[in-house]
Fold this protein.
Amino acid sequence: MADRDVEQLTAADARAEWERLAAKVARANLAYHREDAPEISDAEYDALKQRLALIEARFPEFAVGSPTGQVGAAPSETFAKVTHAVRMLSLENAFADEDVADFAGRVRSFLNLTDDAPLAFTAEPKIDGLSLSLRYEAGQLVQAATRGDGEVGENVTENARTIADIPKALSGAPAVLEVRGEVYMSHADFAALNARQAAAGEKIFANPRNAAAGSLRQLDATITAARPLRFFAYSWGEVSAPLARTQMDAVGRLREMGFQVNPRTQLCRTTAELLTVYGEIEQARASLGYDIDGVVYKVDDLALQARLGFRSTTPRWAIAHKFPAELAWTRLEAIDIQVGRTGALSPVARLTPVTVGGVVVSNATLHNEDYIAGRDAKGNLIRDGKDIRIGDWVQVYRAGDVIPKVADVDLSKRPEGALAYVFPRQCPECGSDAVREEGDAVRRCTGGLICPAQAVEKLKHFVSRGAFDIEGLGARQIEMFFADDQLPVREPAEIFTLAARDATNITKLKNRDGFGEKSVTNLFQAIEDKRKIPLNRLIFALGIRHVGESAANLLARNYGTWAAFESAMTAAHVGEGPEWAALTAIDGVGDVLAASVVNSFHQAAERASIDRLVAELEVQEVAPPRTEGSPVAGKTIVFTGTLEKMTRAEAKARAEALGAKVAGSVSAKTDLLVAGPGAGSKAKEALKLGIETIDEDAWLRLICA
Ligand code: IVH
C-alpha cells in the first residue's frame, strides 16, 4: 500500500504509524549493530527512516528519543546509578476493612486526634506498573530514575523522554521538583505489543506490568520509544517550594503542569467513605483499561503527612488497600524441598500449569511443614485442619507480585490411597539433620557451609542486587562456577581470586563454551570494580539470617567502619556485656537479629569465610544519617511527663530523624531531658545528675518545629 501523505494523517494515525515504524527501525538497529545480523536491506532501512523523519517534521513531539536521531544501538552495558534525593518508599498493605480502620486509628493516635476531629484522606487507584521519579530543574526534565532499592535507582532519563505522558518541560513549577508516579501499559497496547512481538518472533510478555518494566529498562532508548508506555503522577520527592497544602491540591497542580493524574482520585472524610470508594474502584476495575491492584489512601493534609513521617520503608500517612488475590484450582503433582541460604527447608508445590490472573503458574509455595499439615505456627487449625497431599486438587492464588501460594484443598477430589505428606528430617541436599528449633516455624538443615545448597544460595545472595550486584555474575553463572572443578567458586572470597586463578589455568575461561575474550574481560573487570564496597552492602551480602537491606543499613550507619563493626561483633556475647547492650540499643535491632549477627561472627567456619572475603576487599565507611544542622544529632534524649503538642511516638520519630537517640530512662549518658507536666522521678534523677532539662515548648523551638 502506498504511504498516505503525511499532511493528511490525523494525530492518532500518525502516532500509530510512527510507533510501528520506530519499532521496525529499533529492531533493525539492534539486529545490525548489536547482533551483527541485518534483517532488512539498507534501502528498506533508509526508506523507513525517511518516512519517520517526515512524520516527525509534522509532529515534532514524537522526535524526542526517536531512532531517527540515533546512530546505531547505544553501546550500553548497564544503567548508571542514581541516588534519590528523597528515598522512594513502598506502601504498607491493608487487606481487610478492619486494616483500614486500624490505619486511620493509628494515624489519629500518632497525631493525638480524637475520634471526632476532622481527618480527610485521598483515595486513588493503585496502578500496577513500576514507579519512576522525574527530576525537573528550572522546569526542564533533567533526570528520570527507577525506584531500585528505594535509595539508589537506575538512570533511565533517555527512555523516559520517549514517553508521551511525561512532559519534557513544565511551566509554573518550583525550581526543583521531583515528580513521582507509575509507568504502566494499557491492556490494548499490551495486547498489540505482544501481537507484534509474536509476529517478529520476539519475547512475549506475561502481563502489562512486565511489559512496562521490560520496555522502560531497555538500554537502547529507541526500543522504549517504540513501546506504548504511559505515566500517572501521584506523588513527589524533593521540592524547592511546597506544591500546595493538601495532597488533593498538590496533585491538581501536577495536572495543571501537564501530567496525567488519575481521574478517580477522591477526597474522603471518613473511613466509611474510603471503603465506598474502594468498592467503586473495584467495580470499575475491569473497565479501566489498565491494571490496578488496589486503592491507595493518603492523609490529605500535607502538614499532617510531614508530622506523621516515615517508618524504615513506608510512610505512616498512607496505606495500600489491596484487592483480593486471584484464584484457580489445579492438581498438585509433587512436593519438592528447596534449601535456602539460611538452611530453611521450603516445600514447593509442583502444579499442573494453570492460569491465575493472566499468568501461567506451575509452582507455588507451601510455606512449611505445619502449613502442609493444616496447622499454623501456634498449632491452630488452618483450612479446618485439612492437610495437603500429593495428587490433591488445590486452590492457588497470586497477590500482586508475590510468589503464588496454595490456599485450599478439595477433599472430595482426593485420590484414593493418597498418603499424608511426611516432611523430611534430613536435608535432601547434604543429608545433614534438619531440625526445628523452639519457636521456629521452619525446619533447617544443620549442615551450614558444608551443605552445597546453602553455600550456593549464599553465593547467589552475595552477588544479588542489593549486595555486590556484580554485572555478568548472576544466579546462573554462580551455579556454573560452583559446580566447576577447574575454576570453582564455593565461597564469596573465591569470586575475587577468579581472575588470578584463571591466569594460571591451562584451559582459560575465555576459551570455554558460552564465554569469549570480551565477556571474560568484562566479568573480571566487574568483579574488580566491586572490591571497593560500602559497609552496608557488605553486611547485607553476608547473608546473615534476619539481616535484610534495612537492618544492614542500620548496622552500617551505627558502626561506620568494618573495623568497628567486626571488633564489636567479635567482642559481643549474646544477652550480656556492653557490646551486646550497644548493639541492641540501636533502634530497629531486636534481640533475635542481634543474636543472629553475633552468632555468625562466633561460628568458626563462617567467621573464617568472612575473614577470607574481607581480606580481598576495601570496605568503604558509611556516614551516619544526614543530619547537618541538626541541634540534637548524636545526643541521647529522654522524654518524660505529658507532651501536649505531639504524641510520644511522634516526638521519638522526630528526634530520631534528626539523628538523636531516644532512651527510656535517665542515666549519666543522657544529654537532654524533655519534661512535660507530671514529670516525676526522671526529672529528679536528671537534676541530681546535672542533665539539661527543658519543657515541650523549648524542645519545639530547639528543633524549629
Ligand atoms: S504513593 C511514599 N500512589 O505502589 C509513597 N503509590 O506498593 C509513595 N503505586 O512504590 C507511593 N499506585 O510504585 C502511590 N496511586 C499510587 C500508586 C502507588 C501505584 C505503587 C508505587 C509504590 C508501590 C507500593
